[in-house]
């Protein structure tokens, strides 16, 4: 079963939001630059409501179309890198929301 939403970044905000969304009955795919965080998250919260992806391509493929992704990573290079990498795997109609603390001009760009 495909996940209805994806969370990129499992820091304090990302992991809390993923758990909150899952508690409402949604299947959530999660990804983090450091795969250890994904492994820890799945070990702690289970794999019933979550799919823990190791690679961005797996993460994107695990989402139902049109894809809905919330990006919650540190501002600056991390946001830029993750956006560039995930956009390559997306299709027209897919949606990314930057929920991190990026400078608003960077988000608009």
The share of residues in helices is 40-55%
Order of helices and strands: EHEHEHEHEH
**Helix vs. strand class:** alpha/beta
Spatial gap, N to C terminus = 34 Å
Structural summary, described in words:
There is one protein chain. It contains five helices and five strands; from the N terminus they run βαβαβαβαβα. A five-stranded parallel sheet has the order 3-2-1-4-5, with helices on both faces. The relative contact order is 0.20. The mean pLDDT is 91.
Name its key features.
109 residues, alpha/beta, five-stranded parallel sheet
Mind sketching the topology for me?
Elements: E1 5-8, H1 12-22, E2 28-31, H2 35-45, E3 50-52, H3 56-61, E4 68-71, H4 77-87, E5 95-98, H5 104-108
Care to give the gist of this entry?
The chain contains five helices and five strands.
């Amino acid at each position: 079963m495909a996940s209805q939403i994806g969370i990129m970044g499992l820091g304090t905000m990302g992991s809390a939001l993923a758990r909150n969304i899952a508690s409402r009955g949604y299947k959530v795919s999660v990804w983090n630059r450091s795969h250890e965080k994904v492994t820890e998250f799945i070990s702690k919260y289970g794999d019933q409501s979550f799919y823990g992806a190791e690679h961005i391509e797996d993460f994107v493929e695990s989402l139902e179309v049109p894809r809905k992704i919330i990006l919650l990573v540190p501002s600056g290079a991390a946001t830029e890198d993750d956006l560039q990498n995930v956009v390559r795997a997306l299709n027209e109609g897919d949606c990314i929301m930057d929920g991190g603390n990026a400078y608003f001009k960077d988000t608009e760009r």
